[in-house]
Structure formats: structure tokens, C-alpha cells
Amino acid sequence: MESRHSLYHVLLLILCGLSALCQCSATGVEANQTAVLFVNASEASARKIPDTLFGIFFEEINHAGAGGLWAELVSNRGFEAGGPNVPSNIDPWSIIGDESSVIVSTDRSSCFDRNKIALRMQVLCDHRGTNICPDGGVGIYNPGFWGMNIEQGKSYKLVLYVRSQESINVSVALTGSNGLQKLATSNIVTADVSSWTKVEILLEAKGSDPNSRLELRSTTKGVIWFDQVSLMPMDTYKGHGFRKDLFGMLKDLKPAFIRFPGGCFVEGDYLRNAFRWKETIGQWEERPGHFGDVWNYWTDDGLGHFEFLQLAEDLGARPVWVFNNGVSHHDEVDTSAILPFVQEILDGLEFARGDPTSTWGSVRAKMGHPEPFDLKYVAIGNEDCGKSKYRGNYLKFYSSIKDAYPDIRIISNCDGSSSPLDHPADLYDFHIYSSASSVFSNARHFDSTRRSGPKAFISEYAVTGNDAGKGSLLAALAEAGFLIGVEKNSEAIEMASYAPLFVNDNDRRWNPDAIVFTSSQMYGTPSYWMQHFFKESNGATLLSSSLQANPSNSLIASAITWRNSVDNNEYLRIKVVNFGTITVTLKISISGLDQNSLESSGAIKTTLTSTNVMDENSFKEPNKVSPVKAMLEKVSESMDVVLSPRSLTSFDLLRKSISSSVDTDSVLKSSY
């Protein structure tokens, strides 16, 4: 069988040469390009792809968490965003009424020691007397993160803390953006709230508005203090606080890992604003929150260290914790003073992995998760390799973590793809942000990288600049070509993830991003859909393949075998990026299979392309550039397929097995 295939390969090459010659002699006519892809499906030439290869990277940027994946609807719920001094800015809270009827200020009277700011509302009008309150009363409202998405029939849990020296009657309402349409109402009526009192109300929406707001009003003269005002939908994923629709888009990617919580968010522009895990655990009312000075917005840290670990578990992904190593963008801790920072990280590891009776494991257990989280990857810093204190600090963290947790795999910030690292590590970080042509050509970057020693973690890759726009087809194709190179070099690469993951369309700090959303809408960019072509590669078998084309610099391909969890069938998947502007007729020749081992039906062709390479998706056209599936006819070990210009195409060929029937509908719906 092998000799017949070798002869056939030679004949195909001759045909390709003749075809190329004919194309050259066709004056004034743009002919289709031809190419040959040889795939060796024998076990002898195959190797397993790491289970961890393709995952996701979450950073608190673009309001990805606060006002995004984390479903809290109130922005600045603790009134801390204006800083620790009073009076302070309460934005985005606003006042209902004028200064003759209500005065709103802040003071440091909160019952929570780590966030002392509370809001003081002095109602000057009354429901009787000379200064009558306007209809509905006076008070405050919160518009959430560019509008709260309130949906008819759904329930929302309001929790707030209130204090007053008098009895109170506070009306609570979810209203439309102008305050006129009432979507849900309730009242807080109590005679004694002289001490801080927690109030919980379940609001059921009688109408819908994606730009709603929360109102707190009164028509009774007096002073009322409010603090820690939270409004959460009751239908978050498993009750864990994650917005279901956005969580679903992550789950659909089948990520092998999730890197969190940054990125530059971890470093901070200055250390005083770096992410500190201990400030983000425990009861949400006790969390002080912090100002992310790299991306310039406040977060209440409802999405904290515990929630990130829970998110990883809910996704079925391995957590990869990136922590600060005493280095920010503008200041650094000397290695001689780094030990307290090291201890903080050891405490964080005990929180995640420790026995529920341990000091920090018991805190996790009290938060509802007595079982340890499966945390086995940590990154010491982010993009800090060039900082003067990094190597010294790194070695302190490395030795202490390995002593306490020898199974944890440690990631260095220094690139080891071209030359060996000068310090111990299990993996090294590699970031690439560049033009489409550069990212595509970097598919071969790891071809000559050493296969022994630390593996690469490509934790941030993306096409940026003019080629990318807000998420173009061109960017996705270049990234797909790069990932095929990652797949083929997975002996030297253990992990790869796109960046950034999310953007709230009202707060674009970075372009492009994988998923775009508002309070009520979302869509995936072409780069999001491109990643779906690779989600079956984790743990799959990489087949030996070679592509012969003239010219060869616009095509790249790989081949894997994988098992579909929906129908339990095994498929041979071929992925090809045609980065050029000409249609390509690709001759696929597969060797190493038993004769007639491919099913003649049940094969799927999936294509990502569009009429214009700069096409983008939008809320109006969310699927303008998205995978299109079709059944593939005339499947054999030697066949011709057509690749559209500027396209990513996959061919899933069903291998024969004991199961003889194929549910075509389920196959078309699965995998993408």
C-alpha cells in the first residue's frame, strides 16, 4: 500500500508542476492555484497534542468582569470608587430631586472596616407641610454599567445596608432609563434602623428594558444612610454569579485552561493599585475594591480570587494564576524585601489547594468550597522580564513555591523560544501582537525551538492595528495560520490563548477583542469563531502532513484525528488557511489508512470567510463572519477540494467504526 501511495504522490507532483506551468503561460487570465496536501495517518508518524494546548485568557480590561461576565448590576455598589476621603464622587450614582429637596454626600460611617465610605441622603422635603416632596419622592439612582438589562419575568435580588435615626419608608424601583416606566417595585418600611441593618428584597420584573436603572426614593423628611447596594440576577450560571450568555460563549470554546486575572491588571501602573488576592475574598460587602490604574476604572472585586478559581472549575478548565511579583509598570520591590510578597502568594496557594482545616483553606471552605481547587499552574508576573528586580524576585518565588508545592508548574516571563533561559522554569511566556502578515509568518517561529526544557506558553496572541479594526476576517485568518503553526510545533508549546477576551462596547480600552457585549447583547468577532476550529485539538492526535504549493507562502495546513463527544465517532480533521487572494484547488492525499476506512458520507466542510477581508461582525450583523458548514461529498483517500480566497477551512472526515449510522444534524451542530 505504501509503495502505491508513493507512486501516486509523484504523479500528483508532476500534475501540480504542469498545472503551475499552465498558469504561468495564461497571459492576462487569473487562473486558480493548485496545491497538494500529503497526510500520513499512520500511528507511527503521529503524536499526541497536549491536553492543555488551547485555552482562554481573562483580564479585567474593557469592563470584561465588572459590568460584564460578573453579573452584578450596580456600579460602585459600596460608594468607594471616589476614594477613601470625603466628600467624594459617587459616580455613576445620581440624585433625584434638587437641592431644595435633597442633599446627598458621603461620610466614613460604614460598618465595614475595609470600606468605610457610606452615602448620606438628607431629605429636606416631606409628604406634608410647606416643603412637599415631588411625586414619587426624592433620592438616588444607579444606571449600572451603561444600563441594567432587566427582563420581564426574571427575578433580581437586591441587598443593601441602611441606617437612620428615624423610621423610614423607602421606595425601591427598577425603572426605564428615564425613570418613568416602573419594571419592578417594593418598599422598605421599618421603625428601627438606628444601627446598620441588612435588607434583602426579591424583585420580579413586570417589563423589560436593557437600559434600566435602580432607584431608591423617599417622601419623608430625615437622614438616611445607605451602603453596599447590590442587585444580582437570580439566573446566573449555577448561582455562581456569572452572566449566563457570556459564560456560555466561553464554555462553547471548550478551553483547556483559563489564565487570570491579567495581564497588566495584575501589575498595576503602580504597586499600590496592583491586584491583591487577599483583598478580593470573603463576603462581598467586606471587599474594599480597587482602582485599576492601567485600564483606568474602579472594580468592586466581586470577581475575585475565589470566583476566578470557581470560573475555571465551572468551565472544566485548568486555572492558571498570574500573580504580582513585586513589580509594577513604574515601581519595583527590591529582592531583599520581597519575602512578604512571597508569603502572600504561598497563602494564596493554600487558599486554593489547602486542606479545609488549614488557615487559608478554611477561608475557602467557609466560602462554600471545602474541596481544594485544581491549581497547578502559576505565572510569576506579567511581561516583567526586562525589569531590574525581576530575576532576583523570580528566584525567591520559584524556590519557595517548589519547596511547598513541587507539582506546580511555574511560568517565567522571559522568552525562551530562541535561546535557553538563564533560570529554572517549567514554561516561559511568549506574547505576540502584530500585523496580519507578521502574525501569519510567525507560524514558523517555533520550528527550530528546542523540544527539551521549558515549554512555551503563548498566553497572549492577536493581530492588532489597522489590519485588525475592531475584529476583522483578515486578523482571524492570520491568527488561524499562526495557530496551525502552534499545533504543528506542540512538542515545544504547551499552551496558547488569545487576548483580550472581552470588551464592553461602551468602554473599548483595546481593539480588537474576541467577544463584544453590552448589558443585553453580545457577539463573537471573527477571531472568536476562528478559535472554534481548534477546540477539538486539545489531546487530539497530530498527523504528519506536508503541503506542496507554488507559491507556498499563502497556504498552511495541519491534520489531526479527534473523537466527537456528541456521536462518539472518530474524525480526521484537516485545517487549511488560504491567506492569498486566489482560489486554490487542493489535492488531498491520505496515506497510512486501511483501505476504504473513510466513510463516504458524514464528512463536513466548515469555512470561515467573507466577501471582504476587512469584514467585521456587529450587533446588527453578529454572524456576518462566522463558520458555515456543509456536507462534503465524494470522500476518499485522494480527493480535490476548493479553498476560497482569504479563508479558513476545515474538513472533518468520518472514519469507519463499529457504529454504521451518522446523525447528520447532530454532526452539523457539533464542534462549532
From TrEMBL:
Keywords: Extracellular matrix, Glycoprotein, Hydrolase, Secreted, Signal
This enzyme's EC code(s): 3.2.1.55
Signal peptide boundaries: 1-26
Main location: secreted
SMART domains given in the database record: Alpha-L-AF_C (SM00813)
UniProt xrefs under Pfam families: Alpha-L-AF_C (PF06964), ASD1_dom (PF22848)
InterPro entries in the cross-refs: Alpha-L-AF_C, ASD1_cat, Galactose-bd-like_sf, GH, Glyco_hydro_b, Glycosyl_Hydrolase_51
Biological process terms in GO annotation: L-arabinose metabolic process; xylan catabolic process
Keyword Ligase part of the UniProt annotation: no
Ranges where the Alpha-L-arabinofuranosidase C-terminal domain occurs: 459-647
Catalytic activity of the protein: Hydrolysis of terminal non-reducing alpha-L-arabinofuranoside residues in alpha-L-arabinosides
Listed Gene3D superfamilies: Glycosidases (3.20.20.80), Golgi alpha-mannosidase II (2.60.40.1180)
Origin superkingdom: Eukaryota
MF (Gene Ontology): alpha-L-arabinofuranosidase activity
Protein localization: Secreted, Extracellular space, Extracellular matrix
Leading EC class: hydrolase
Family the UniProt entry places it in: Belongs to the glycosyl hydrolase 51 family.
Protein name: non-reducing end alpha-L-arabinofuranosidase
The species this protein was found in: Nicotiana tabacum (Common tobacco)
Native organism taxonomy: Eukaryota, Viridiplantae, Streptophyta, Embryophyta, Tracheophyta
